Amino acid sequence: HASKEALTEEGWLLKKKLGSRVYIPGHHYQRDEVIQFADDRGDSLRLAQLAAAKKEAEYIIFCGVHFMAETADILTDKRQKVILPDHRAGCAMADMATIHQLERGWKRLQNQFGDTIIPMTYINSTAEIKAFCGRHGGATLTSSNAGKMMQWAFSQKERILFLPDQHLGRNTGVGLGIPLEHMVVWDPIRETFEGDAGTRTQVILWKGYCTVHELFTEKNVADCRKEDSDVRILVHPECNYEVVRQADFSGSTKYIIDVIDHAPAGSHWAIGTEMNLVNRLKHNHPDLKIRSLNPMMCSCLTMNRIDLPHLVWSLAQLEAGDAPDTIISVPDAVAKDAVFALKRMLEQS
Ligand code: 13P
Ligand code: SF4
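Above: the input record for the complex with iron/sulfur cluster. Below: its predicted structure, written as tokens.
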């Protein structure tokens, strides 16, 4: 068992040796010990844009979760290989929408609403869900462009099926002025609506959620305000509607970073997003008073599965010329449809 220092040193040495053969993108929720090696950091949108633009690297070691690595594989050149250092780094939210549930649900929705629905998926979804959306005229979206993409969707069809995050769908819908009564939740397990679905329905929200962001509660908001009347509350739109409504600011990971980077010195913040990012912001801004909106500190188990040993092991495999066994490869039949959904988004972004 090498020490953390020794592993870090080995990681830098290997990265240097591999040079431009390897490109390492990293999501902002990654551990410090990992993100230090990233050539670029970003939120989901930026990482998708970078993957689409990066043509020279032979290998892309993706420091993020499974759906992000799949997205990179779909958008990169055929000869480029995408590596996810630990294949157990999934996403609880993406797992809440399977292609079988979607195909069954879609039939039911078609029976009720006919050809008036466009399927739109948060990028936090499997390649197969993206492919379904691509085949049916829909697109992907991220928390950075959700409003714009929903508006685009309404230019195509009367109704949106929004997968898989009900909270991002609801919060974005409300932001566009859609009344809550015009949105209805679809439960893919029980195959029923939760609430009334009828002619006024504009958004059908898939009943998925992020297991990290759902941990921020209205009670957390009330407690923070009680403890500190100067606090400003800043949350990700994967938090539930009431939390977002009661917060002072809400937006994507990139938005959260921008707000904090421009915050007045001495201001107080309670942030509702993944712990690694909150801790990094705290560390980078000692002049601000920053804390997690939930004092428990909410961490994404799967994001954290990409750790220093897994990253160094992936680099070592490549350097030794071994066939990496952590390649993510989306089947061509899926990728060819999923790319439509992703390109429709990238064209608007
Ligand atoms: P963004 O990077 O789009 O803010 O998404 C947050 C997230 O939960 C990624 O898994
Ligand atoms: Fe998925 Fe939430 Fe983790 Fe992001 S933070 S990877 S949405 S479980």
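Notes for the reader.
The mean pLDDT is 96.
The CA atoms of residues 87 and 134 lie 25 Å apart.
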